[in-house]
Write the structure tokens for this entry.
Amino acid sequence: MTEMRDVATLAAVIFDMDGLMFDTERLGWRLLNQAGAEFGCEPLSMERYTQAIGKTHQETQKIFSEMCAGDKATYRAIEARFWELDRDYIRNQGPPKKPGLIELLSVLRDKSVPCALASSTRTERVKEHLISAQVEEYFQVVVGGDQAPASKPAPDIFLMAAERLGVASQQCLVLEDSFAGVQAGHGAGAYVIMVPDVLQPTPGIREQADQVLESLLGVVHLIKAGQLTFSS
């Protein structure tokens, strides 16, 4: 953790979604292997799966297609089946919530803190997740990756979210789990708290995060202890 800077001017919170609010990476790994098994393919290890996080779509396809020995036609079928399984799961069960999510959203609402969601995922899918998880009411602003000029680690999406909230990005608390997200929040001048998901931060990422916590419950504790405060 870097030295804690003054956060007395915080006015809003910007959440990432996948891996931060919802345990979608582990869900994605399970469903990808389920889809692959239907085509007689070998399962992809979690370690190998995590190596695709933050990669381009082309790089991700290269890694995931290893389960079918790189056969492109088979992988396209697996990918199509994966999205069917994913859509059905989200619609029927909702995305699995990370520990502390509801507690944090409730505390912020009680304190009338404006909240935005800024995700690299396309806006339509983000809204589907929020509705299925029954948390859409907590967010005044939603910005999907299809709305931002440049994706994380560029700061664009956080700058857009802050502007739509009507506050300076330097007054925002950004909550992230990914390396690219931490870099984007840091680039926007926000106060960044990283809650790692499947990947632990490198020393360089720790330098760009103001704090690293084990779960969103840690953020709740900071707020209740008066270590994170928000101006009205």
In short: The radius of gyration is 18 Å. The CA atoms of residues 61 and 231 lie 45 Å apart.
